[in-house]
């Protein structure tokens, strides 16, 4: 993002001081654990109960990071419009290049400060794990198209859809 300044939260648990690893021999590694943290990953994504671990290994090119993270977020069901909790799981498996001017992607560069902010990369991976059509549960009945009642909570008289007379023969196939 050339010419764009990014405001970083120095208290974010996704900002890791990995600078000391750059002064170690190739093959040296260190684990970073996340245990039940609430994190504002970006302006459009907050997660709860972030847990998992990341292992960074010193390589000739920089740092190889690999790990598994789980987090919970709130989504809205596309059928009944109720908010529900969804667990997201991601696997990070990336080479973070040092010095940063050699990196083809700024998200995969270790800054000169040695403080690696995993928030943008974690955001990308978490968004990829979002369901395309979030559903609170598989058997969700949704909303009545006539009166708008949540059919999971109560039935209504409008639940029987009128069938086009030309398709009446196909109605038996649905039962």
Can you tell me about this structure?
This protein has helices spanning 119-129, 168-174, and strands at 15-17, 29-42, 45-58, 62-76, 83-97, 115-117. The protein is mainly beta. It folds into two domains: 15-129, no CATH class; 141-175, no CATH class. The strands form two sheets. Strands 2-3-4-5 form a four-stranded antiparallel β-sheet. It has a two-stranded antiparallel sheet with strand order 1-6. Strand 4 and strand 5 (83-97) form a beta hairpin. The N and C termini lie far apart (56 Å). The model is unreliable at 1-9 (pLDDT under 50).
Describe the protein's topology.
Elements: E1 15-17, E2 29-42, E3 45-58, E4 62-76, E5 83-97, E6 115-117, H1 119-129, H2 168-174
Antiparallel strand pairs: 1-6, 2-3, 3-4, 4-5
Short description:
The protein is mainly beta and 175 residues long. Helices cover 10% and strands 37% of the residues.
- Could you spell the SSE succession in H and E letters? EEEEEEHH
Shape: elongated
Low-pLDDT ranges: 1-9
Estimate percent helicity.
10-25%
* Total helical segments: 2
In the sheet with the most strands, the strands line up as: 2-3-4-5
| Rg computed from alpha carbons, rounded to a whole number of angstroms | 24 Å
Beta strand %: 35-45%
> What is the average per-residue confidence, as pLDDT, rounded to a whole number?
88
Work out the number of β strands.
6
Terminal CA distance reads 56 Å
Number of domains: 2
Largest sheet: 4 strands, antiparallel
Structural category is: mainly beta
